[in-house]
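Comment thread on ticket #2218

A.B. wrote:
> Attaching the input chain for the structure job we discussed in standup.
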Amino acid sequence: MAPTPASVGPTDEELTRRAQAGEAAALGLLLARHQAPMRAVALSLLGHGPDVDDVVQDAALTSLSRIGDVRDPAAVGAWLRAIVRNGCRMRLRAPRETPGLEGLSRLRLTGDEASQPERAVERHAMRDWIWDAVEELPQQMRLVVMLRHFSGITTYREIAAACDVPVGTVRSRLSQARERMARVLLSTQEQAHGDATALTKGSRQEAEATLEAWETGGLPREISELWPAESQMVGRLGRPGERVHPVPVMRRYLEDGVRQHLRRVVAGRDIAVWEMDVTHDGALHVCPPNLAWLMFRSSGRVQRLRVVFPRPSQP
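C.D. wrote:
> Ran it. Output below, let me know if you need it in another format.
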């Protein structure tokens, strides 16, 4: 007996058109329906390994932001498999690990896009949507996502060193984070979202003011409040079993001739990453050419600062 239309369910074309109209559940059904063939493509190109799950999850998140690009809704399965195929090829071509989540890595505006107001507004809205989903993650997952997809600390090895965890833990946290983000993005695409630019801009101003203040030897009130008495230096520059405040540690390196120059800022509500280039002409200490401050905040104040020294990946 032939199945009835009700038992067959909606076609790919119907689900795609509903997803393009903003129905999150329809996109969820599409992804569930095509997960197996998407995974088969990844396996055929990458072989068995953790990268397969990463690519499939990346493709699922990318589809959230690009479902409107589908021109032939009936062929959405081929479109999803093409995203997976492109993700696999990027990984195979890359000389080092690179963030594969296209939906996140495309969020930075270029100079050309800045001259196209409508496209700029669209990208800003997409960025805010993504960042709100990032902020919904537990802190440990949020940190690895921020590093992997928004900072210059992108390889699993670098992230593991920065977070002081094994590489396998980084992979696991990223995988869990992608799954959670996919659910959050599907359920919040019609909601209003905060302005992620404001957080980054404010954090950059704090970074510039902090570096300038340390150069001149005094912290203005608004910056001193960022570094309260309970602030603690942890990790490589801290002292196990002893509370060390970041200010005297950083001032000591400054007095010894080490200079830090702000390069990139990544900021959420309670985690910020300040990436620095380092010069040390005539310094007593020879430092690596770059470092990053990982700051964990509460009520706007830094509670913990971990300074990490990313190293280039070995070929």
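A.B. wrote:
> Thanks. Noting for the ticket: The chain has a mean pLDDT of 79.
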